[in-house]
Amino acid sequence: MDLVKRGSTDVSAHRFCFPHATAADAFRDRFGGERLTYTPQKPRPGNLKLKSKRIYAPRIVTDHIMLQEDFERLHKFLLETEDIPEVSDDIRELVEEEWPELVPKLPPKAP
After folding, report:
1. pTM (predicted TM-score)
2. CA 80 and chain centroid, separation
């Protein structure tokens, strides 16, 4: 974990936390400050099993704004459902773009 500290040593100092050193360096180069690096002494057991969470950009699908939770719910539904009777063209396009490995689960395109 890399930190960049901006400001003096008084109460108004701000610390920004970055997951990667390159982001911390870019921030420091642009805005100034002092780079602090935190290295834990030993890894915590819970940190070993962290799974990276995919972030989805909001988008409009069939007159509905799909947010992160909507994408996660749809993905889970598609994974758990064996027989999907029909899908809209918008949902088909979304699945083709976001989860191409799940396209075979969709019904054939209607002529």
Report:
1. 0.52
2. 21
Task: Kindly list the distances between the CA atom of residue 99 and the CA atoms of 21, 83, 96, in Å, as whole numbers in the listed order.
Answer: 30, 17, 6
Contacts of 64 (CB under 8 A, 6+ apart): 70
What is residue 82's three-state secondary structure? coil
Please state, in angstroms and rounded to a whole number, the distance separating the CA atoms of residues 65 and 63.
7
Q: Are 66 and 59 in contact (CB under 8 A)?
A: yes
CA angle 22, 23, 25 (to 5 degrees): 65
C-alpha span between 65 and 58 (Å, rounded): 7
* Residue 23 in this model has a pLDDT that exceeds 60: yes
C-alpha 102/C-alpha 71 separation (Å) is: 14
DSSP code for 63: T
Altogether, the residues listed in the chain come to a count of 111
Alpha-carbon distance of 95 to 97, in angstroms, equals 5
**pLDDT tens digits along 53-102:** 889 999 998 888 999 999 999 999 999 998 888 899 999 999 999 999 99
